[in-house]
Amino acid sequence: MDFAELDAIEGLRWSWNSWPVSRTQSNDLVIPLSVMQTPLMNFNDLPLLPYDPLICRRCASVLNPYARVDYPSRIWICPFCYQKNSFPRSYAEIGENNIPAELFPTYSTVEYQLNHQALSLNNISSPTFNTSSFNNSSFNNSGFSYGKGLGKSGSCSSFSSVSSVDQRVGGRGMGMGMGMGGGPVFVFVVDGCSSEEEIRALKNELLLIVAQLPENVMVGLVVFDSVVRVYDLGFSDCLRVFVFHGERDLSSTQIIDLLGIHSAKQQLGKTQGAQKHGFILPVSECEFNITTAIEDIHHSSPLIPGHRPPRCTGVAIQVAIALLEGYSVHTGSRIMIFTSGPATMGPGKVVSQDLNTSIRTHRDINSGHAPFYWKSCEFYKQLSEKLTDSSMVLDLFACSLDQIGVTEMRVAVEKSGGFIMMAESFESDQFRKCLRHIFSRDHEGFLNMCFDVTIEIITTKDVKICGAIGPCVSLHRKNASVSEKEVGEGGTNTWKLGTLTDKTCITFFFQVNEEQKPHPGTAFFIQFITKYRHGNMGIRKRVTSAARRWVSGGAPEIAAGFDQETAAAVMARLAVHETRNNFPREVVRWLDKELIRFASKFGDYIPEDPSSFRLSSNFSLYPQFMYHLRRSQFIDVFNSSPDETAFFQVMLNREGVVGSLVMIQPTLFQYSFDGPPVPVLLDVCSLSPDVILLFDSYFYVVVHYGSKIAQWKKLGYDRDPNHESFRKLLEAAEVEAEQVVSQRIPVPKLVRCDQHSSQARFLLAKLNPSATHKSSFVDGSEVIMTDDVSLQVFIEHLQELAVQG
């Protein structure tokens, strides 16, 4: 079974593709029944249907290919609750040879464009559905009208014409859905305590972004140091700002009153009133003013020797949130923080201004010696509730050599679905590429982002929903399919996200509903309904329907349907979730315990005989993944700051299976004169003086030159025409490294190093220490100075414990 191919069709990766019929049997599997979903995955042939979906009257599921249809009676039977539903009049011409896209067997995922009345406002003819576009001879060419229902249409065109509708509707980002309100809102919150060089680089990027924004996008600007300055972008005579003290903890109501936003709303009395106020305006109305305001940002007053800059990050975020609340913006907004240091005053304070006091470490937090940590976390937890209630997204761009407080701000950023980027400087390519990627546009000219997302799950009655782990929050909507057991964000069948990308992945957990007693061989269904606001501000609903089968506890289908890559990613998320309440050593102990149970359950062995232990190919890689997970930066926080750990864990919780595996067990490719690049073991034995290694750990990409290769480079052999093959060898590794870096967001750090140099530590720290200073090794061979056990020793211990039963 090719799980990657199924993922390309459904956008789903299942830890188990066949489920046992009882809860006891499912608990014995060790790995939870779970699905990793990428809600907005890019599909090659995703039908975009500009009409509302048909909803089951009882369970609210959407019409899908698994529904049974009685064409003569125009009735469809819901596969989830068996409710009979009538087709509306617009489906009058439905028949076995004339079916809409949502019933076509190959479309497990379809997308609906809701509130499509915007089409008629632009006098666009309704495109029609042509069954011949499916290249299936069993269907005739009679079409369905997409606009005013599904009746017969005189002219037929393929459904691909739907994708061109948006292009004909609007221009320069003013497309479909604009009749329902303005564009998305961005509030830039800039740290004025940064150095002049950093501020200059940041201003250049912000000016570039503002110049390229669609005209309907609305913007605001907040600058902070010891005070918070809110720029009035509607005042043309001069730069006018409203100033808030950095120590005051004001409520949103107080901030709104002080800014006078409420009075503007009362006078206008319209939903569009927010666009006329001066603090947040469309780019088309304030481009000159916001450009002038950005250019006016400068470094704050000189520092007091021996002190950190007075920085009130928490108050600045409070003001930005209140600003959006005052406008009643609930359709899509992002607060983007650009900072280069920790908050040293006001709510959300991370560290004192005195440089004699060092910023908190993992040990300080665990021992209770971080005086501001818990209070600051509670402050940002409260802000996260405001953010999610109003569908706001908090993005954090932290460019500093020191910590800035990512750990404290993590909950607000992650729960709102925001983006975290950590770099050393605003002048770095990492920052520029990340910011430009976020504001990239799609092929229709709209911002390539979405807002105000909800994900709802519908299941058959024999499946219970336990929860989700990812950048989402529970909406606490319970029904009969919600389990009493909660995993992550549980107690609901609906979750909210501030935003999503086409890479964002959520892990959902399920369990068997024993009350229904499913029978082996029967199918169960799960439907994922993702509703979101597109970059053109039109509302869309993507529906993914999937089916799997129940099997008896010992059936071979269980082993055949085990996806060990997905299982490793799921366990990594669970382990990260456990670190919030347990020390890393306890989490490692829990992982070991679960791995021993897993090996004992699925291994083939003679009791008490470790040498007889074997794992089939479907399970053989899983212990290796767990070995690397135990040593990863997600669990082993040694040599990582709390901010780095928070960043790593947030990224793991939103990455798909492939990206998660690269984080857990990095890839290593060898470039040599012997042939094309080949993958090699992530082991110290792969180090050699005459090869180039390309190492990818997701956050770092390392080009490691062997000692001989490095020496030849220093001698300039790559510039000698007689050594063209050497130049091509160097070039091949460089090109591949640059390609990996360019395709990933956030942009990984690219490290070029020679064997035995200090920078080689990025590679050595991840290699399996099969040869150490304590083990026997051949003179001249590479060794790693570490007390960690090797993979071979780890597997031997696992075998000994597993065969004990």
Automatic annotation (TrEMBL):
Annotated membrane topology: Peripheral membrane protein
Keywords: Cytoplasm, Cytoplasmic vesicle, Endoplasmic reticulum, ER-Golgi transport, Golgi apparatus, Membrane, Metal-binding, Protein transport, Transport, Zinc
Statement: the UniProt record of this protein carries the keyword Transport: yes
Subcellular location: Cytoplasmic vesicle, COPII-coated vesicle membrane; Endoplasmic reticulum membrane; Golgi apparatus membrane
Residue ranges annotated for the Zinc finger Sec23/Sec24-type domain, each copy included: 53-91
Primary residence: membrane
PANTHER family in the cross-refs: PROTEIN TRANSPORT PROTEIN SEC23, PROTEIN TRANSPORT PROTEIN SEC23 G
Protein family membership: Belongs to the SEC23/SEC24 family. SEC23 subfamily.
Protein name, entry field: Protein transport protein SEC23
Species name: Tagetes erecta
